[in-house]
């Protein structure tokens, strides 16, 4: 037996391990690229093509729409006032304006989630109403975990009061955690199903500022009392829309 030849044919154990880890890393990277391409490019493109032939919204919307055309969260609150008045009463009610989406804010919310640090102005994903994304967005952190938070988006409507101040229609919901979207597979916040609880949370906070001149409820605003949002989360409501009129400072 030629022991010298047999020994030369053997691959050192460390080299074999390095080769194995390279193959594992290549498979992981390939799967990650395929996942990202599927959930952030292919699925949204296919859904947009479908929605272009089967539009989801009408001329009098009650539910928001995601950027790729999925149904979003339902409308459940409203404020009447100028933009400055809405921002001020939300500030007094201890709501923070949400930061715009971007690499900086995405990195921060990821780091704060891992480190369990509060992010008072964490961004919210864009939802659309009247063909445009939200005009204003506010949030309230819950503890030191950005995965849990109260948040509300507002859109300027075409209605106004006798002083010419706009009706801002809003969609309030509570983020109960982070996970994969049930419709697209993208990473997203998941909302609590009882959106009326979040509507009432907004109402109580704004009423406690004593900055409203009147409030009223629009019963039966929603004909459909339940549905699913863009992340596949089930929501349900009693169908009412709460509206607060900000007092005019004379």
Characterization of the model:
The structure is a single chain. Strand 1 (63-66) and strand 2 (71-74) form a beta hairpin. This protein has 250 residues and is α+β, with helices and mostly antiparallel strands. Helix content is 34%, strand content 31%. The protein folds into two domains: 1-54; 61-246, no CATH class. The strands form three sheets. Strands 3, 4, 7, 8, 9, 10, 11 and 14 form an eight-stranded mixed beta sheet that branches. A four-stranded antiparallel beta sheet has the order 2-1-5-6, with no helix packed on it. Strands 12-13 form a two-stranded antiparallel ribbon.
Content-based structural category:
alpha+beta
Q: Percent helix among the residues? A: 25-40%
Distance between the termini: 105 Å
The major sheet is characterized as:
8 strands, mixed
Whole-angstrom Rg: 24 Å
Name the quaternary structure.
single chain
Total DSSP helices: 5
- Give the helices and strands as they follow along the chain: HHEEEHEHEEEEEEHEEEE
Shape: elongated
Secondary structure: number of strands: 14
Enumerate the spans where pLDDT stays under 50 for 5 or more consecutive residues: 3-8, 50-57
Rounded average pLDDT: 80
Count of separate structural domains: 2
Strand content: 25-35%
């Amino acid at each position: 037996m030629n022991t010298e030849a047999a020994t030369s044919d053997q691959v050192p154990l460390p080299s074999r391990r390095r080769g194995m880890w390279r193959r594992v890393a290549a498979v992981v990277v390939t799967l990650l690229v395929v996942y990202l391409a599927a959930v952030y490019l292919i699925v949204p493109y296919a859904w947009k093509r479908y929605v272009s032939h089967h539009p989801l919204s009408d001329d009098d919307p009650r539910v928001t729409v995601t950027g790729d055309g999925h149904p979003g969260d339902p409308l459940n609150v409203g404020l009447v006032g100028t933009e400055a008045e809405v921002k001020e009463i939300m500030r007094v009610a201890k709501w923070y304006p949400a930061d715009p989406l971007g690499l900086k804010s995405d990195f921060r919310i990821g780091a704060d989630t891992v480190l369990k640090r509060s992010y008072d102005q964490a961004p919210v994903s864009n939802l659309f109403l009247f063909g445009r994304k939200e005009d204003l967005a506010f949030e309230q952190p819950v503890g030191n975990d950005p995965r849990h938070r109260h948040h509300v988006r507002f859109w300027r409507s075409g209605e106004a009061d006798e002083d010419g101040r706009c009706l801002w229609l809003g969609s309030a919901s509570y983020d109960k955690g982070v996970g994969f979207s049930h419709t697209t597979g993208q990473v997203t916040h998941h909302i609590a199903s009882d959106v009326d609880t979040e509507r009432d949370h907004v109402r109580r906070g704004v009423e406690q500022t004593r900055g409203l001149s009147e409030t009223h409820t629009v019963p039966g605003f929603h004909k459909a009392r339940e549905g699913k949002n863009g992340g596949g989360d089930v929501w349900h409501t009693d169908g009412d829309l709460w509206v607060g009129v900000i007092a005019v400072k004379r």
